[in-house]
Every structure is written in C-alpha cells, then in structure tokens.
Design goal:
- Strands 1, 2, 3, 4, 5, 8, 9, 10, 11, 12, 13, 14 and 15 form a 13-stranded mixed sheet that branches.
- This protein starts with a helix and ends with a helix.
- With about 375 residues, it is α/β, with parallel strands linked by helices.
- The protein has 17 helices and 15 strands.
Length: about 375
C-alpha cells in the first residue's frame, strides 16, 4: 500500500480527514507540492499546478488528463481556504485552485481568478443545473468558478445516548440544556454561525444588525453548553464514539465513518434546514497554462473522477455522471439518493455572509467569552 492509499484508507476509516491533515501541514508553514506520479520528469515540468486540500492530490481525480498526457497535473496542498488565499496573494502561483461556495467571492475580489471558457469543458452540461446557477459561478457576467462536489453540514447524534432525538430533526438539540457539557460544534463561522442563525430563525447570509444580535445571543447561550468547539472532524468522531458527547454539528463524512463502524448514529435533516457547502475549481489569474488548466477542470468533472470522489471521500458529485457511475451500495453507505436534485434544492448552500469580517470577529469574541 503506497502513501496515497494509506491516506485514503485513513480518511475512509475516520482516522484522518483532509481538513485535519491539511491543518497539520499548514502548521509547518509551507506549501507542500508533489507530482504523485512516477511519469517522465520532462513531461511533468510542463504540467500546471493544482492547489487543493491536502490528501486530494491524487491522479485518480484526473483520469482523462492522465490518459492524454501520461502524467497528472502537479499538486500543491493547503490546510484551509484562508491559508490558500493568503499564499496566492503572497506570490505563490498555481494554475488551478479549489475555492468553496463561501469563499469564491473573496478569491475574485482579491483579483486572483480569471474567466473560464465553459465551451472548452465537455462535462459542463453534466453539472446539475442548480449548482451551475449558484452565486459565485458567474461574477460580473463571467464564469469564474466550476462546481465539482459538495457535502452537508448538520447534526450527528448518538441515538442511544439522546433517545428523545432519535427521530427528531432539529438544530435545537445543540441548545438543549439537558445535554449541557455533552454537545460540540464546528469551529467554523460558516457552520457555527450558520447553525445559530437557523436556530434563531434568521437568514445567515443577509443579516441586519438586529439579526446579528439574535445570532450572537444564540451563540452566547450555546457556549456554556458545549464541551468544545473543533475544526477537526476526527476529534468530534472520537468524542461521539466514546460517549463524551451525544451530539455535534459535523460534516456528512463523519456520519459515513461512524455508520461504517456500526455505531448507533443518525444524521439529521433539521426542520430549520440542512446546510451544504459546494467545492469547485477556478483558474488563477495570469496562468501561463490556460489551455491545460481547462483540461484539468474538465478531467476533474469526468464521471470516473466524480465517482472516485464519492466512493473514497463520501461527498456528493456535482455532476449527474458521477452519481450514475456509483452503485447502489455506495449510495446507501453515503446515505445519498440516486437523484440528489431534491436534497440539493432543500439544502441551504453556504455562501459569503453579508459583513463577513464583522461576523467573524463577533464569533471569535463569543468563543473567547467576551
């Protein structure tokens, strides 16, 4: 088993998450690059660089590109979106990057991405229409971001330890004083503030001053009930497994991992709404490999690549072909429908929040007890 296989196995079993591994690498203060392939060095030197989450730097995501060029693109990895933006602004020059639905406008406003010619993407029309129409795909009349995959953010509950929520679907469990000290939340503005907004009954992405005050009050109320905040899904999984906590806001890969272990868990579809993040690819402004960058994006959208992403990482494909290429057993394991259109339509996609910097500061103050 090679290093990439070990990494993927660790993700599947919940021992390592791409964000967790990325944060470990980010602590080193370096951009990690690799070819992840034993192809000809001369050919590799001409390949564009794909800047993505750690552990996502594998050739399996680019089957058509490898078939054509004999090698995958070069890879560089980041620990989180803030780190990625800062490094590109600081002079690092990849060719293709992986923004997410709640950060693409920050990438664009920083002048880091350039228009994409969708006529060069054979798989463009295979992307679900609801995702092609997301905020941030087009900005100022130009396509700057191509959705590729997505995941959910909801409540994962131990049904044996919180039996009164074994069939209930609500964010309110994370404010239930009965379970004080046995709850946890993601240390992420997109998730924690988004959940508090749903609990408070306001739109997280267009909050008035009064709305912000309501969300702050909900976060302040919740803080003493939490065992901890964490941006490490493995920490959340371990605490749920041991019974240290009974419920937490997690991404759906945590549910897939714990379900595979045979634990009595349930991933809620809250009545207030389930959140979803969407990941996608953009071309870095000024790339000298514009044509190859389009090929990288198209290869990443290929049905085999999307099926690989679903089966190995547990996230949904942005394309119909990706869903068609996985079997029913995989969908059952991921708890995803064959046609995700209804689920996506009912999900609240995480997009940039109005006055995002001020809201981030508010969230940090609440966490610090200010």
């Amino acid at each position: 088993m090679n290093n990439n296989d070990r990494m993927l196995d660790a993700i599947r079993t919940g021992r390592l998450n791409r964000r967790q591994f990325g944060h470990l690498l980010a602590g080193l203060g370096v951009v990690v690059t690799s070819t992840a392939y034993g192809g000809p060095a001369a050919a590799d030197e001409e390949q564009p660089t794909f800047f993505t989450w750690a552990t996502m730097d594998v050739p399996d995501f680019f089957p058509t590109y490898v078939a054509k060029h004999g090698v995958p693109p070069k890879f560089a990895v980041f620990g989180d979106q803030d780190e990625a933006i800062l490094k590109v602004r600081g002079g690092f020059k990849p060719d293709v990057v992986y923004p997410q639905s709640y950060t693409i406008r920050r990438w664009h406003e920083a002048g880091l991405v350039e228009p994409i010619d969708t006529s060069k993407l054979s798989n463009w029309d295979d992307i679900f229409p609801s995702l092609r129409g997301l905020d941030g795909v087009q900005i100022d009349g130009e396509t700057v971001w191509v959705p590729t995959d997505w995941g959910l953010s909801s409540v994962l509950v131990r049904t044996d330890l919180a039996p009164d929520y074994a069939k209930a679907d609500t964010w309110d469990i994370l404010w239930d004083k009965k379970y004080s000290g046995r709850l946890a939340a993601l240390d992420s503005m997109a998730d924690a503030v988004g959940a508090a907004a749903l609990h408070a009954g306001v739109n997280a992405y267009n909050m008035s001053e009064d709305d912000v005050a309501k969300v702050r009050a909900a976060l302040v109320e919740q803080r003493p009930l939490l065992r901890f905040y964490s941006n490490d899904p493995t920490t959340l999984q371990q605490a749920l497994t041991s019974g240290e906590i009974v419920a937490a806001n997690t991404w759906n890969d945590s549910y897939v991992s714990m379900k595979a272990q045979g634990l009595p868990v349930r991933y809620m579809r809250p009545k207030q709404g389930i959140m979803a993040w969407v990941g996608g690819l953009s071309i870095v402004k000024g790339t000298p490999h514009k044509e190859l960058a389009h090929e990288v994006i198209d290869a990443y959208l290929d049905r085999k690549a999307r099926a690989f992403g679903m089966s190995q990482y547990g996230y949904g494909s942005a394309t119909a072909g990706g869903f068609a290429a996985v079997d029913d057993a995989t969908l059952q394991r991921l708890d995803l429908p064959r046609d995700p259109a209804d689920l996506l339509a009912k999900s609240i996609v995480q997009v940039p929040m109005k006055n995002q910097n001020a809201i981030q500061q508010m969230f940090e103050q609440v966490k610090q007890g200010m």
